[in-house]
Specification:
By secondary structure, this protein is mainly α. The chain has one domain. Helix 4 packs antiparallel against helix 5. The longest helix has 24 residues.
């Protein structure tokens, strides 16, 4: 079945629910801890996480990092670099940092025994829906272009329902993790909007990865602190 732009335009409403399906798959992988131990299981979870997303968001991280570093504040130069399929030194460093932070945070939450980490893929994708709804697109064409101007309040409410349901199931740290993730994505998006006069598909991907990292770190750090 071939998807057209109308199908793509409707899809942001379901981003958070796709994140919930991903969380369920990742939870199954996490059950391997008694067999492989915390560290190796954390790496297996990350490997499955990347496979499920097709590495699309990590590509956004690399392209955005290269664009920011190489663009030197020039909008057109930044956009050109972000379109380049080749990865630069800053993009490679950004990828390593994102994956290392996820790995370390997963080890910590596994040791704590909190399920709050499962909020990360859900909240991050809801954050992406918010970015599509609230920020302009920087290009006239691009992978994210069909989404823009198509997201309405019903789509946001449907995504919020997924986050709320997950927060209810995952315990005390999960809602706070979701809030932290969304705030981080919005702040990042605002910064990129100023630089690019809008967002791009790469920025959406980078925002998702940033939100996932923040959600994991918040879940690991707040679990003991919350009453």
């Amino acid at each position: 079945m071939k998807l057209d732009e109308r199908d793509m335009a409707r899809s942001p409403a379901w981003f958070a629910w796709v994140g919930a399906l991903m969380a369920a798959a990742l939870w199954v992988v996490s059950l391997l801890q008694p067999v492989f131990g915390v560290r190796l299981t954390a790496m297996l979870v990350i490997a499955v996480w990347v496979a499920l997303s097709g590495g699309l968001h990590l590509d956004g991280v690399a392209d955005t990092a290269d664009g920011i570093s190489g663009g030197r504040g020039d909008r057109e130069r930044t956009l050109i670099i972000m379109r380049d399929s080749r990865i630069g030194a800053h993009g490679a460093v950004a990828l390593v940092l994102v994956l290392a932070l996820k790995w370390a945070a997963l080890e910590r939450v596994f040791e704590l025994g909190t399920p709050a980490w499962l909020m990360a893929p859900i909240a991050a994708r809801f954050a992406c829906t918010l970015l599509i709804a609230w920020f302009p697109y920087a290009r006239s064409t691009g992978l994210g272009r069909p989404f823009v101007d198509a997201v309405r309040w019903p789509a946001l409410l449907l995504g919020a329902l997924a986050v709320s349901f997950a927060g209810f199931l995952l315990g005390r740290a999960a809602p706070v993790s979701a809030v932290c993730a969304v705030i981080a994505a919005l702040l990042f998006a605002q910064r990129m909007r100023v630089r690019l006069e809008g967002l791009t598909g790469d920025v959406y991907g980078a925002a998702v990865e940033l939100a996932e990292v923040v959600a994991l770190l918040a879940g690991a750090g707040l679990y003991r602190a919350l009453p």
